[in-house]
Amino acid sequence: MPASYAVIEVDFTAAPGTDTSYRMERATAPAGPYVTIAVAAPLLAERAVYTDSTAPFDTVLYYRATGDQTGAVTTYTAGPLDQAGQVWLRDPLRPWADLPLDFCDAAQSGHVPGCAQPTPELVWVGLGDEVWEADAGLFPVLNSETPADVWARRKHASGSLTFFTRTLAAIDRVYTLFTAGGPLLLQLPPEYGVRDRFIQPGNVTEIRISRDQRRPERRWEAPFTVVDRPLGPAQGTACANWCALPAAYPTYGDLPSGLTLADLAAGEVICPGGEPVTPLVDTFTRTVAAGWGTADTGQAWTVATGPAAEFSVNGSAGIHTHTTLNTLHATTIPWDQANVTMRTRFSVSTVPTGTGGNDIHLMLRRGDASNFYSARIFTGTTGSLMISLRKFVGGVETQLVSATPGFTYVADAVYAARFSVQGSNLMAKVWPAASPEPAAWQVTATDTDLTGPGAVGMRTLVRAAQTNPLPITFRFDDLVVTS
Question: Mind listing the pLDDT tens digit for each residue in 49-64?
Answer without folding.
Answer: 888 888 888 889 999 9
